[in-house]
UniProtKB/TrEMBL annotation:
The protein, known as: Transmembrane protein 42
InterPro entries assigned: EmrE-like, TMEM42
UniProt entry keywords in alphabetical sequence: Membrane, Transmembrane, Transmembrane helix
Record-annotated membrane-spanning stretches: 59-80, 92-111
Source organism: Acrasis kona
Record bears the keyword Transmembrane helix: yes
Keyword S-adenosyl-L-methionine tagged: no
Amino acid sequence: MASQFKGVQNAVCAGICACLSSVAGKLMFTGEQEKSPVGLLCDQLSTTLPLSGEQLYQIFRLLSFVLNIILTVFMMGFSAQAMLHLSTLTATVINVSANFVLTAALGWLIFNEHLSMQWMIGAQIIMLGVFLIIRGESGDNQTQKKKSV
């Protein structure tokens, strides 16, 4: 049971890293500097720093790129660890579900993206599916233990 919990924990961490990686990627390619919140922040910071807003914006984009790569590497590591403790299917479903829900939530919070009622219902169905998969795998583990005794 502790091994399964560790697997779920690693799969969720993989989903979080994947989500944050996608946010970093979106920040890296936010479009025109003048219209983006990051561009406005860089322009404000340029009044106190010896760099122009454009230079700060390019530095921010470079840091977002590096962060994107680092988070992707962490995501792969957590995903591999999850697959040591769970079936590949379960680890992947938990990873993708956590990524899906958190990416949408951060998209809504950071980028003001619209989430429809249809999306909300779909997210609930995904979470129910994850619950059923984890519960089914837990039941399979208990059945295997009884057979081996």
